[in-house]
Amino acid sequence: MKWTVRRLCMSLLVVTLFAAHGAAWDYSSPLVIDHTSSDLDTIPAAWIDSVQANLRLHYAHTSHGGQLTTGLDRIEAAAPEYSVARGLRYLPTEAGALCIFDGQEHDTYITPDEYWQTKSGMDYTRSVLDNNPTMNVSMWSWCTQLTYYTEAQTQAYLDSITVLESEYPGVVFIYMTNNAQATGSSGHNRFLRNEQIRQHCLAGNRVLFDFADLDSWWFDPVAEEWEHETYEYDGDTVHVEHPQFHGDQAGHTTYESCEQKGKAVWWMMARLAGWSGATSSVRGDDPDHSTRVSVEMYPNPFTSSVTIRYTLQEKCFTDASVYDVAGARVSRLIRGEMTPGIHLIAWDGRDERGTALPSGIYFLNLRVAGTEAHTEKIVLAR
């Protein structure tokens, strides 16, 4: 009884701190962090400051999960304003840094049974949260388990995190997908289990760090466009690690892949701190005459229709299309010469044949003057 009351008091304290610090996540809609959430330049500096001042991250993982911490370390080395303080088995208190409790109190290499799979593992997690009442974000990373886990085993993961969510309402628990390195039947099994996790997050308005998506997409800086690596298996288009990320520099991948995931961590934390995620970008063949495009979408996620609002500073040819996660175009919204000013487009979640598309993640691609100007994630939740 005393232990239960103590945990309740801790949870209430964290809720108070979380609200006082301005963290805005309220589970009113799903938040999916993927390759479209990896551009640090679009995050206002004030929100990076807010993350460092107000959020405390508990992160448990094995070797593959170390890609995130390696990426964060490399980002900080290149740009000190993205300061991170990571304590092995403890929570640092460094001002002006994102403070991370790395591991559990007894170890830093955390397998499923040491975070969520067993009663003792869940108690390890509870102990970290109970003993660090300012902690308000917790996440655990897969290694390769979903290449062989069954649907029931994956459901046990979802159920355990749901239990922790109910016990610690002031802590945001981050769900994750498994890395996308496996191919063949193992990769297909992982794809199915990842989809199980994605649908759970979309249906329940959870936060998902889509590790597999980040593995399979690479931004080509020369062509200024994203490349997506997939293969076909049993009628499904399966994400697989992009060849650009084949290597073993850190965490079984390349430094570039680690940095992409580290950037996505910053994006996620900024969203949890209250940033809306609204972005704008500048593209153009002539840097002195580039076209500025600002884009907003509402509501997002949506059930029946999403309104896309974009602004052009000059008359130009514009092409707006929606793509699925496999990179296939499902609907072309506009194509033609557009005047300067504000424009509105509505998309009803149907493909070009008028067929209603299933719930899931889609991408708006807005091209201006023949170059990719903006890519924005759309979540359809019927």
Q: What are the salient characteristics of this protein?
A:
382 residues, alpha/beta, Rossmann fold, 2 domains, seven-stranded parallel β-sheet, 29% strand, globular, disordered N terminus
Overall 3D geometry?
Answer: globular
Low-confidence stretches: 1-23, 280-291
The end-to-end distance, rounded to whole angstroms, is 42 Å
Order of helices and strands: HEHEHEEHEHEHEHEEEEHEEEEEEEE
Tell me about this structure:
The protein is α/β, with parallel strands linked by helices. The protein has two domains: 272 residues, 3-Layer(aba) Sandwich (Rossmann fold); 101 residues, Immunoglobulin-like (Sandwich). The chain has eight helices and 19 strands. The strands form five sheets. Strands 1-7-6-5-2-4-3 form a seven-stranded parallel β-sheet, sandwiched between helices. Strand 18 and strand 19 form a beta hairpin. The longest helix is centred in the middle third of the chain and has 21 residues. The protein is globular and about 60 Å long. The N terminus is likely disordered.
List the helices and strands and how they pair.
Blueprint: H1 2-20, E1 31-33, H2 45-54, E2 56-60, H3 66-78, E3 84-88, E4 98-102, H4 119-131, E5 137-140, H5 151-167, E6 172-176, H6 184-204, E7 207-209, H7 211-216, E8 217-220, E9 225-228, E10 230-233, E11 236-239, H8 255-273, E12 280-283, E13 291-298, E14 306-312, E15 316-324, E16 329-338, E17 341-347, E18 360-368, E19 371-380
Parallel strand pairs: 1-7, 2-4, 2-5, 3-4, 5-6, 6-7
Antiparallel strand pairs: 8-9, 10-11, 12-13, 13-14, 14-17, 15-16, 15-18, 18-19
